[in-house]
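Weekly structure sync, notes
Attendees: PL (lead), two postdocs, one rotation student
Agenda item 3: pending single-chain targets
PL asked that the sequence for the first pending target be pasted directly into the notes so everyone works from the same version. It is reproduced below exactly as submitted, 954 residues in total.
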Amino acid sequence: MRLSNYFRNSLSRQVILLISACLIFGLFGTAILFFLQQNLNHQYIENRKVLVEKRKTINTIYDEYNAVFLDIRGYVASNNSQLMERARGKEKGIRALISVLERDSVTISEKSDYREMVEFSDYYFGDVLPNIITNYENGNHTEILDLANTETTMKVERFLKDTKAKSSALDNQLAKNVVELSKNQSNLQLIFIGFIVLFLLLVQYIIRMIFRNIGKPLIDFSFAANEIAAGREAVIHVDPKRKDELGMLSVAFQKMVESIQEKEQGLVAQNEELIAQQDELHAQQHELEVTLENLRLHEQKLTRRNELIHSISNTLNKKEVLQSVVQNMCKLIGADRGIIKLVEEDAYAAFGLTQIGIDRFIRFMDIGLVQRLFETKQAFTLKREQEIAEKGYHENINYSYDLYLPVLSSSHKVEAIMVFSRYGNNFSDKDLSEYEALARQIAISLEKIKMYEETESNRNLNQDILNAVQEGIQLIDQNGKMIQVNQRLNSIFNQKQLINGLIGLSWTEWSSLMAEQIEGDTFLVNLKRAIESAVNAEEEQSFVYCKKDTKQVMKVYAKTIYHGDDSLRTILVHRDITKEYEVDQMKSEFVSTVSHELRTPLASVLGFTELLLNKKLKPERKMKYLQTIYNEANRLTLLINDFLDVQRMESGKQTYEKKYVDLYPIIETTIEHQKVNTTLHHFAFESGVHQSIIFGDKSKLEQVFTNLLSNSIKYSPNGGNVTVRINENPESVFIEIEDEGLGIPNDAIPHLFQKFYRVDNSDHRRIGGTGLGLAIVEEIVKASGGKITVESEYGKGSVFKLEFPRVITRELTKQTEGISSDLNYNIIVIEDDLSLAELLKLELLDSGFHVSYFSSGSQALEQMKTAAPDAIVLDILLEEDEMDGWSVMKELKGNERFKHIPIFVSTALDEKEQGFSLGAQEYLVKPYQPSQLSKVIMHTLLSNGKQGQILVPE
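Predicted structure, written out during the meeting:
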């Protein structure tokens, strides 16, 4: 009874009781469903774990037996004892796995499977395997075949099939468990949905009870309150037996109604008295409104003045200041339009004016009323009749009052002119004094802007100068705070996004940011020492650091700026000495390499020479020593030639005798030459080309392939395959040289073709070399119009890939050297390169010329004595002739009969000046398009009407 009264006396307790009951019901039901779900999942996971483990063990046994069978077959096929030992070694692991199955066996079927596996293992490892090994070692191969053809093979296959079937059965059991789990979860979800429906019905019942016991009485109270407020009577229907808050509220509400009715009569009497007082207050209010309006106008005037001062003081942008001045002045003085114009600059701002009016005002500033401001330097006003455009829709005569106001600088010089127009109201003398004071304030602001612009211009000039410097520069104050930097320093420390990326940072911030990007941990110590030395005016202290990411080597030195005896700021300069550092490193590397590579053969030469001079030796030993001396002398010669080649390449004096050469025989010959230098390597040459003709220097190309193949041998100290592949497409010829040697680290590949570069590890250093070979190779390949790249996997070998522009030639048929043509022009081609001669001859024949070909200059001259040609195509380098191209040209120029014949020089030599000195007008340098030659010849002969002149096409 007491508990029932406890809840009946309080609405909140009743609501809490209902909600708590609902929550307890929901939580209890949810907990039960959660427990069922967890138990179901746990059983599934445990069961699946056991099945997966069994399947994994059975699959492992299956794989191990397969490996054993393969190893035994490999042993029998290749007599590899390691395979036999590995097969025997797997027995222990297989039996261990079967033991695991025995431990996990539960059913009679599983135990039966275990016994079958044990029996098969005993049968195979105890009977079959020893029998195979014994027969094989005794050479009884027939016995082995008989054994394989008996039921042994069937048992092996049946065992593997049964093992695979067991694995599949476990997979099926796993799938069945998943289906069962899904079914159980579906049933659980249906139960959960029913629980939710039941819970919602309970919530609806609770809400209905709350509405009936609390909501309806409150609605009745609200309706009664509105009735009382409207002056009508109201009756509240509430159960008088209720002991809760609503019962108490109904009693209090009834008492309140009675009290209001009693006080209503007293309020009516007071209201009549207040009406009388209100009339008196209205009269006083009118007086206050007049006074307040005056104060408001004064306040508005002060506000606008403050806005003007604030706007011109809040920015240093000249355009913004001028626009703010004219707009705020118009508001302040009540002007309808206005303009301000700087005297010495083309800067202005206007309000209420068209661009035409602004331009007219600026154009006539030096004459008229504005000139009066320059003379008197005082403000004045002008009354004038309004123009038609200003009158608008007014028809009467109206007047406009113009205010001319000078802005004077501190030196009493007119800096700007302000003109304002106001319609209908004149400006008083008091107003003029006030406006002149505002003009002085504007003048101060303009002078401040002018000083700022001069300062900013100087600052920008200084920053531009600093940014143009290639060293990184930073300026710090006495506390180490960063004041100024240039773009180069931001770039060095990866702050490119903002020029002010480092500015404003404290000593700790910027020094830590730099230290994070620098190798080693001595940067901060060296930096402090350098700054202290600069501040104390000691001997300059500089230090060197290296960037982590770019590997730049930087040198830092400091200098302090003094004002009198006081140190103000310190400048730090970061100078990039990477190239100098690399040059020093290269010099050291070069000296070390050259001294080693020169001393080694010289030591052999001197040593064997001394033996020959001081000892009596057998003839065969003498010959051996002389051969060694000869070989070492050749080695020295090749080394010196490499140095000379590099020097000529760097100076641009390397010459190339370029011709159309076939790469296939060059590579084939080079491989044959390299085979005699090694017995550990096997060479393979794979060709997929129909034609491998390029334009280049034959001897230099031989040097390229000799260097690359020599490197493949040298850096494959353990031997292996060296494979050369040559392929083509319509534009290029591709060569790959692949070895199985030491390989190249990834970080070394970008530097591989640098002069004197050596891979920095013990394997490569032990082999030796100058580091010049690949640099020479790259230079020759580029000079031939090609390119070279390398791919390598460290420890497994390298592939060098070359690409050259391909020259396409077609073989000539045994057609007549002159094809019938309407042109009827006879051309002589003098060229010792057969491939190029065929190419040029075919091009000219296709163009309708009669063509004769000679490889010798003297033979061509003899032929010309019989019949003079219309034009000559001449090579300069004629190998098998006593006359070169220059001699042929001199002979033709000296002969009156032939000196007018056009000569088209086709050569690899870039000697245009000499060609012109012999009478040439054009010059064609190989390689070039053959069609270009035929076009030039055709154009020349048609233009000159066969009246000859010496021409060399470009």
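Discussion points:
- Residues 297 and 303 are 10 Å apart (CA to CA).
- Residues 810-822, 946-954 have pLDDT under 50 and may be disordered.
Action: rotation student to compare against the earlier draft before next sync.
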